[in-house]
Amino acid sequence: MSVIEQVIFVGTGCSSNTPALKCLLENPPTCEVCLLSLTEEGWKNRRKNPSVLIRVRDHRDPNGRLRNILVDCGKTFYQSALDIFPRYGIREIDALILSHGHADAVLGLDDLRAWTSGGTLQESVPVYLNEETFAVVSRAFPYLVSKANATGGGEVASFQFTVIKGNEQFEVAGLDITPLPVHHGKFMSTGEPYWCFGYRFGKQLSCITDANYIPPETLEKMKNSEILIVDCLREAPYMSHFGLHQAIDVVKDLKARHNYLIGMAHNLEHEDLSQRLSVFAKDLDLHISPAYDTLKVDVLADGYVRESSWRE
Ligand SMILES: [Zn+2]
Ligand SMILES: [Zn+2]
C-alpha cells in the first residue's frame, strides 16, 4: 500500500484571502489581523485560497520520486505555486483532485499550462472531479476540456479528466482515494444543499476544505484517520463553512492524532488561534493547530509528524 510521506499546505485562507482587500482599502485601515499580516512577524496570517499538496510513496515504485497529488487549484494558485514548488524542489503534478467548482478551487487551472505546455514537465495532468465541477470547468474553460475550442496559438494546459461519483473510490499512485461528500452552503433558489467533496487518502488522511455540515455516513468514512484537515472559516458558524467550535466538534468526534484547520478568514489571528487550540489539544490529548501557507508536514513512520516551512 502506498503511503503519504509529506503534506504541504499550498494555501490556507478563504476565497478572499488575508489580507482582505476591503480591510486595506478602509481609510484608515483598522483591521488588526490584516495589518499584522503585512508585517514580517505576522506572515503566518498571509493566507491564499485553500489548496493542499499530498506527497505519496508509490508502493509499486518504492525507490522512485514522491508522487504529488494536488487538492484544488484556485484563483491564487500561481502565487502559491511560486512559493511552494521551487522552494521544496517539487516539479510534477501527478494528479489534481478538485473539491468543487467555486473560483477559489478551480480558477488556477489555466496556470497549469506551465506544467504541460510543450510537454515541459509532463504531457498532461490527470484531473479528478465530480460531475457538477466538470460542468463548471467546461463552461469556464471550454478550451481546457477540448482543444477544438482553443483560439490562440494552442499553448493551453493539457488535462485528462476523470469524472468521479461520491460513492466510488478511485486510485492515484497506488493510494485509494475515497470521496467525502459534504454540504457547502445551499442553493438560494431551492434550499437544496450544495455538495462539495472532501477526500480520504488511504488510511492516513482525511481532508475537508469546504463544509458547513458533514453527513453521518461521510463522517463514518473518515473514522480512524491519523491526520485530519478541516475547514474553519471564522469564530462563528457561517452558511457555507464551519465556525471554530464546529470544526473542534469534528476533531473531538474523530480524534485523529494530528489536526489542522484550513480556510481561515482574516478575523482569525494565527498566534492567538494556535494558543487557544493548544488548550483543546491538551484536554483531548491530540495535536490541533491552524495550518499556514508553506507549512510542510513530514509524516514519520511511527505516525508522528515533523513540521517546518522554508520561511522559518
Ligand atoms: Zn481584515
Ligand atoms: Zn466554495
Automatic annotation (TrEMBL):
Domain Metallo-beta-lactamase: 67-263
InterPro entries, sorted: Metallo-B-lactamas, RibonucZ/Hydroxyglut_hydro
Domain of life, per lineage: Eukaryota
Protein name: Metallo-beta-lactamase domain-containing protein
Origin species: Umbelopsis ramanniana AG
